[in-house]
Amino acid sequence: MKTQEKKQKLSIVSMMHYVRLLYRTVLFIWLAVDYILNHICRKEPIDGWLEQQPVILIVTWTVFVIEMILRFFPSRFESPGCQKQFARNYAKSGKTEIVIPDNHATVLVALLWIVFNGIFGALNMLGILDDGVMILLSSAYSVCDMICILFFCPFQTWFMKNKCCSACRIYNWDYAMMFTPLFFVRRSYSWSLLALSVALLIRWEITCFRHPERFSENTNDYLRCANCTEKLCTHKKQLMSLWQEAEAYTQERIRRLKRE
Length: 260
Description:
This protein is mainly alpha-helical. The protein has ten helices and no strands.
């Protein structure tokens, strides 16, 4: 008789990811519904309406600013993926060969992201898409960011080929990618979010250039699975197992119904 594996409890870091997924999803749905209602009923641009709701705008802006500022400092409530840049998280393995297999894919990801968002930006400048769509796109990216961490990441699977988020070469690109559409929204709140996210990215890249040993599992034991505090891969496996069980149950029900 096979012993069933004990299920891994959600870590504090993983719980924080789910909290972010929740409020970012709520924010996106709220913005999308309001955008549609504004266009149907009041014919008022969403960005203009946001400026008439200062409390909501300030709270949303403040939350993202705080999230980004905290990324500049070591924290046990953040993913090891973004914490490997700090000296205190560099655990020497005794090896000297720096191995970052996904390092060259960063250029491809950056180019694809610029081109992809450049299309939306061009449509915005031509007046086909308004600023409200760009804000919605940025909000959608914020939700997708959490989906990439918790469930499935196309960058990891198709481009970077890294083992998990902890070893991800572009982990701290997330906010800069998230707020890219705000470049075309000429508002102080949008450009301030973008500027802070770019500063975060630059800090990350400078650290990677000066201390590549911190970003390599071969030289930094902090990135090894045994030292991981996030355990997201375990949760992903559990979710995949649950999905497979549900699929098998559905298939079995279909077979039974066909026999009846």
